[in-house]
Specification:
The chain has about 130 residues and is an alpha+beta fold. The chain is built from four helices and five strands; from the N terminus they run H-E-E-H-E-H-E-E-H. Bound molecules: tetrahydrodeoxyuridine.
Length: about 130
């Protein structure tokens, strides 16, 4: 992938991050999912006073995408205000893997344009599938 393309996706994830509802952690996460037809779906983390009900940015984007017709994730980019590129939580890795294969590209970024490109197999080795 070209650096230009990567930075553009990260920019979209940064825009998505503005939709975050995170009054408890004050930690905003944004994500953009690209599907098989190059449709882009944005999502951000949405928290709840009952903390355990909070939903991560990655899952918001994926659930929105699937409910609008995504069959397969071509790419997903995630950003947070972290020193290093953000590291998705275990639950999100599992949810991404439901709509991915070993080679699906996952772009992890922060607000300073640092990024790390991984594939699904690296992000969730030996993941659970039925
Ligand atoms: N969060 C995400 O949105 N994605 C992750 O992969 C890790 C954590 C959110 C959940 C919560 O709203 C906030 O970050 C702090 O944990």
């Amino acid at each position: 992938m070209k650096k230009e393309e990567i930075l553009k996706l990260l920019e979209e994830a940064i825009v998505a991050r503005e939709g975050s509802y995170s009054p408890y952690s004050n930690f905003k996460v944004g994500a953009v999912v690209v599907d098989q037809d190059n449709n882009h779906y944005l999502g951000a983390n949405i928290e709840n006073a009952s903390y355990g009900l909070s939903n991560c940015g990655e899952r918001t984007a994926i659930f929105s995408a699937v409910s609008q017709g995504l069959k397969k994730i071509k790419m997903i980019a995630v950003v947070g205000d972290t020193t290093q590129p953000i590291s998705p939580c275990g639950a999100c890795r599992q949810v991404i893997s439901e709509f991915a294969d070993e080679n699906t590209i996952i772009i992890l970024g922060n607000l300073k344009n640092d990024y790390k490109i991984m594939n699904m197999g690296e992000l969730l080795p030996y993941g659970f599938k039925l």
